[in-house]
Amino acid sequence: MTSKRFLLLATLAASVSLGGCTGYRENRGFIMNEELASAVQVGTDNKASVERTLGRPTFTGQFNDNEWYYVSRKTSTFAFRTPRVTEQSVLRIRFDAAGNVAGVDRTGKEQIASIDPYGRSTPTLGRKKSFFEEFFGNIGTVGSGGLGGAQPQQ
């Protein structure tokens, strides 16, 4: 009887511990409807009609307000790993000065850039100081009048 109880408890403990290792998928950003996205036509639509059809964009151009971006991304994750992008769709709509659609472009997952940081510290130019030089180096250099180096107002 005890071996059956032990086996049951071991199976229960294993299933509970492995339950946290399941993978999951997630949709992020704009949910792309292909029929609505393909309905946007160059020369026919303007900013108001695009907003009625697709809604507000995910973001606008940083240097040009006449570029709207709709970004959709699907990711998958296993356990506690970093999410991996499985699908990405970026719809860029460009407008002319009058607010009419001048171009519609699509890109996908190929535009994702992976940036690796350089080590654990940022390289700097100049002299390297020790901890004590950094800590005690500013004593007497902040100012000469009063506490804290502030000059009294007259």
Cα Rg: 29 Å
CATH class of the domain at 21-112: Alpha Beta
CATH architecture of the domain at 21-112: 2-Layer Sandwich
CATH topology of the domain at 21-112: Beta-lactamase Inhibitory Protein, Chain:B, domain 1
Q: Helix-strand pattern, N to C?
A: HEHHEEEEH
Low-confidence stretches: none
Helix content bin:
10-25%
Distance between the termini: 92 Å
Mean pLDDT: 81
Which word captures the global form? flat
User: How many extended strands?
Assistant: 5
Tell me about the largest β-sheet. 5 strands, antiparallel
Quaternary organisation: single chain
SS class = alpha+beta
Strand content: 25-35%
Secondary structure tally, helices: 4
Notes on the structure:
- With about 150 residues, this protein is an alpha+beta fold.
- It has a domain at about 20-110: Beta-lactamase Inhibitory Protein, Chain:B, domain 1 (2-Layer Sandwich).
- It is about 25% helix and about 25% strand.
- The protein has four helices and five strands.
- Strands 1, 2, 3, 4 and 5 form a five-stranded antiparallel sheet that branches.
- Strand 2 (about 60) and strand 3 (about 65-80) form a beta hairpin.
- The longest helix is centred in the N-terminal third of the chain and has 18 residues, at about 1-20.
- It is flat, with a radius of gyration of 29 Å.
- The mean pLDDT is about 80.
